[in-house]
Amino acid sequence: MTFVEPMLVKPVSRLPEGSNWQYEIKWDGYRALAIRAGDKVALVSRRNNSFVNRFPPIAADLRTLENGSILDGEIVAFDAQGAPSFSLLQQRTENARALVYLVFDVLAFRGRDVRQLALVDRRGLLDEVLASDQNSVRRAPIVDAAPKDLIRAVKAQGLEGIVAKRLDSRYASGSRSGAWVKFRVNKGRALVIGGYRIGNGTFDNLAVGYYDDRDRFMFVARIQGGFAPDVKHQIFARLRRLEIESCPFVNLPQPKAVRWGEALTQRRCGTIDG
Q1: Which of 70, 77, 144, 250 has the fewest beta carbons under 10 Å from its own?
Q2: What domain range includes position 230?
Q3: Catalytic residues
């Protein structure tokens, strides 16, 4: 009943088809593992950083789970129209009612490791762990539709993409085996803040990057404008508490534009996953 590395999703250029695949929406949120052991509850990121103090309503609702459970899912915030909003997720305290932990897998059931079971069997156990969707902890929906229809619907709704999983797949911790794949419908990339430059009592610009298929943190650009003054000071206060001595990027930031295969535009810099 301790942290295990989550299974990773492999990007693909074509959505797989067939009766041995199930489809889920790719949400714009934080991947998180939930551990319910004895009188303790843990809610952690995929790198084992605690989310308990960041999302206390979800942590509180996890206490209603059956003891001996480890769940895998994503923390998502929904706006008034029911669409996932990363902006609301960043304002978690003010929008606590919009927060939901969407669970899509179970790694431990009643204290037993079940990662070697097929996905379809683990999903059955998840239905027992979450017998009813209530409060902020809910089952992630499985979408029953033909891939072409699903792609059309996801694109129309402006959602990021689709995740396909083989029904017979085992849970391979830390692996990107190809049994789970993600197909991006609406192009874009969530960027992660890796550093900043100080200026005028706050930051002058942010150094941002992304994790590639080998989980390497790659620098792509610096972002300077587009921040309201109060938001800028809030971000700066959070960044100062997260400082480390070494550069997190595997490729040192370059003075000129860096590409990942597609040109970096202002629109693609609009979403920052801090």
Answers
A1: 144
A2: 188-274
A3: 26
